[in-house]
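pinging the channel bc i need a second pair of eyes. not urgent but kinda urgent?? the chain im working w is below, pasted from the shared doc
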Amino acid sequence: MRRQLSTPTAILLGSAMIAAAVYLGLRHGPAAVAPDPRAAAGDASHRGEPAPRAGAAEGARAPGEGAPAPQRAPAVPREEVERQAARALDARRPALVERCYKPAIAARPAPREVKYVFNLTFDAQGRQIARGIIEDRETSRPDVTACLVAALPPIAVEPPGASVRVDVPFSLP
């Protein structure tokens, strides 16, 4: 009589083999891939020109070219961008109170104050490229938050010269 593996034992052995394969595969890091010389030369084969030698594209490239550009520090301090964003939010506060807060308070009076933290990211020209809203648990009002997301247009600040992310506290009323 032959003994067969039970299902749990087979699962355990299979998992161990997969874990070993993943471990051995990830030990050495990603393989270095040589860049395609056609891409660097503008794909000459599509223009009817002979393709360059494999090393020609790398030799013609300036030192440091092709590598990711280092992140520049903003010309305007992060604190100043945060103040500008807070002023922009405060300027929209009266309209947001009328459109979002007052109807919600009329329907359900508690909690009276709603607190948020806006995560705002601005590009080098000062345009908002990302926005997130964190609600305070104690004063959470999902109806007001949904209205804020829909009613608040993108915010702009003076060009900081580089991408900047700031956290701005905000509350209603």
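so The chain has five helices and three strands. and The longest helix spans residues 78-107. — does that match what u expected or am i reading it wrong
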